[in-house]
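Inputs:
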Amino acid sequence: MNHLAVWGGIAAVVITSTLGDVLQSRAMKEIGDLGLVQKEHGLVAVIRRVVTNGRFMLGLGFMAVGFFSLLITLSWGEVSIVGPASASLTFLANALVAHIYLKENVDRRRWLAALCVAGGVALLAH
Amino acid sequence: MTPRKYLTLFAVVIFAACGDVSLARGMRDFGAVTLANLSQLYSALLNPWVLVGILMLIGFFASYLSALSFADLTYVLPATSLSYILMVLLAKFCLHENVTMWRWLGVALIVAGVGFVAGGPEATPGAHKHHQIETLYGPVGAIGEVADHEVDV
């Protein structure tokens, strides 16, 4: 498989995984602190609120697509490139989309943290 | 941050690392799985290490969702990346894998990343759903505001 296909696969993994993470984060923000919801309404209410949230289920779907995209891309390229590249790029994409879509305050400190962790994860593959 | 929130983030780290290492240990009993022997995956599900790994990853997902319910995604992801470090340590000392200099450098970078994010606030004000809680003294404001006193309520 050529380089273009491998990097296309990595891009698919990064996009779907990021969408999954961001949608789930948005769903959890809407539901509220699960610990406090459980204290007030019980565990069954927590589970019901989570599984009936449309964004959560959509996020779960994207995570599943991301997982299978990773499996397919791993069969095209070397694991030492596909694994760290998709994991570290997902960290950076999450920071960007969280800032734009979730309106999170991604200041210099959080950007540095995302860059350090992305670099560290890439190095773990060596 | 309350002790409960620290405990939730700690649970994410422990479940993620121990779950992955348990799965890796269990799959060693089966060797490489290919399309030709895909049915081996079914017997792998009966392996105790794989079963423990799956249970741990369910625990990871539950604690990860719980962490996202009170903290920003851009806080949770770097803060819980400590699981990568725990995974390297478990791989070296439990699975006796070779850990190269590059990997230790990766560990150092992750530690730096966690240090950067740990010094800041865990949530963007107004980003998480606000919630009224009844106490002996009447309703208290937003979740984030009462969180630091919830042990006393």
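Chain A touches chain B at residues 21-22, 24-25, 28-37, 40, 50, 91, 94-95, 98-99, 102-107, 109-110, 112-117, 119-124, 126 (CB under 8 Å). Flag for discussion at group meeting.
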